[in-house]
Each structure stands twice: as C-alpha cells, then as structure tokens.
C-alpha cells in the first residue's frame, strides 16, 4: 500500500493494518530486524485442524520506535504472524502430508492485543480468499490483457458482478455458476436490474465441485 494512501486513511480518522510484502524490501528488512532485536509485548497462540490441515498460529506484537519508520504515518505496532503445521499436497490419488511454515509481517496504526490482531488479520484473509483469490485464480484477473483507458476498471466491475451473481445463486463454486449462467442473457439482465427470482426460476445443480468457492485457504 502506498504511503500516500496511508496518509489519507489517517486523515480520514481511520486506522490501518498493512501486509508487508516482498516487493517492499526496505520495509521488510526493517520489520525483520525489529522483530529479531525486540521483545514482543504480547503473544497469542491458536491451533486448528480443518480439512486435514493442522495449523498452529503464533501472533506477536512489537511496539515501533518513532525513529524506526518515520515515513509511515501513525505506525504504532509491528505484528509478526508465524503459521506452521502439516497439510495435504498433490492430487487425491497421490496426496501426501507435508510440513509447512509461513512468516508474515504487518504494520498497523492500532495498539491492540495479539488476540485482537489475530482476529483482524483472519478477517482480512477471509476477504482475500472469498473474493480476491477467486478472481485471481478462477477468472485469471492478474493476467488480464485489458490495459487501455477505462477498460481495466470496466472489466473489474464485470468480474465483481459475476462473483456477486454466483453468490446470489447459492452456488458452491464459480465454475458451477458459470454453467448455470451460460447462454442465459435474459437471466443475467434480470439479475442486473434486480427483477429476477432466483429461487423459483433456476434449478440448483447437484454437482459439487472439488474447489470450494467459499473455502478458506489459510
């Protein structure tokens, strides 16, 4: 997230939690050094076993000295999230259980407990998995070839409408929704103008895809 956007968030009397990504090497370096040289002021642990995936999450919160990140407005907390455990990998017939470990850093204007940060970050991942992951993977949004003028924004709205319509149809997966809507232009236009009764005119498909449209992946 650009620093200017952060400034606008603070000017609007709001708070932020920003994921520090690999394309921000300087910020990531500062965060890593701060976490390794400081003592966490709060820690939270959580364990879960879902769909064959065993995960232990550890959330640590570090205070940010004012001189560490002067260019980031109102940055008060550095949050470190470590996830490790085991998960299935590969096709069902050749599935293996493998170990994994992930480490992420977040920058925030909040002064929260580790448990509160854990809930907020999980909420962010819920949005990522329910919306952005579907648009990136199923609709191939990241490789969109429309780049000129208003084309990217227009196509983004089309993809968002498609995802929203799939949810109104109560589809388990986006591919199922695409099959239901194939060659159904009148149905789509009716839905666009909110004059369509989904429950009475669209039979639900009995097919359940292996890719759960609303599943969480973290």
Pick out its properties:
extended; 39% helix; five-stranded antiparallel sheet; 218 residues; 5 strands; alpha+beta; 23% strand
Short description:
This protein has 218 residues and is of the alpha+beta class. It has helices at residues 3-11, 25-37, 114-137, 151-168, 174-181, 185-192, 198-201, and strands spanning 17-20, 42-50, 53-63, 77-89, 96-108.
Radius of gyration: 21 Å
Number of helices: 7
Largest sheet: 5 strands, antiparallel
Element-by-element helix/strand order = HEHEEEEHHHHH
N-to-C CA distance: 22 Å
How many structural domains in the coordinates? 2
- Sheet-strand content, in percent, reads 15-25%
The number of distinct β-strands equals 5
Regions with little confidence, pLDDT below 50 for 5+ residues: 200-218
Strand order of the largest sheet: 1-5-4-3-2
Structural class determined from secondary elements = alpha+beta
Mean pLDDT over all positions: 78
Q: Give the CA-based shape.
A: extended
Quaternary structure of the protein: single chain
Q: Determine the fraction of residues in helical runs and give it as a percent range.
A: 25-40%
């Amino acid at each position: 997230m650009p620093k200017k956007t952060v400034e606008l968030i603070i000017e609007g009397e709001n708070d932020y939690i920003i994921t520090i990504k690999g394309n921000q090497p300087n910020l990531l370096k500062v965060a890593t050094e701060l976490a390794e040289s400081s003592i966490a002021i709060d820690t939270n642990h959580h364990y879960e076993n879902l769909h064959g995936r065993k995960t232990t999450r550890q959330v640590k919160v570090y205070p940010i000295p004012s001189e560490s990140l002067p260019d980031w407005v109102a940055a008060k907390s550095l949050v470190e999230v470590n996830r490790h455990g085991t998960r299935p990998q590969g096709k069902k017939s050749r599935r293996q259980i493998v170990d994994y470990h992930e480490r992420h850093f977040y920058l925030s204007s909040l002064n929260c407990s580790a448990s509160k940060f854990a809930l907020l970050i999980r909420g962010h991942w819920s949005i990522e998995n329910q919306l952005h992951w579907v648009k990136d993977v199923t609709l191939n949004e990241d490789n969109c070839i429309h780049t000129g003028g208003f084309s990217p924004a227009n196509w983004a709205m089309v993809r968002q409408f498609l995802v929203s319509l799939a949810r109104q149809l109560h589809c388990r997966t986006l591919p199922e929704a695409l099959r239901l809507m194939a060659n159904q232009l009148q149905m789509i236009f009716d839905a666009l103008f909110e004059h369509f009764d989904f429950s009475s005119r669209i039979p639900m498909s009995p097919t359940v895809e292996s890719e759960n449209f609303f599943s969480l992946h973290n």
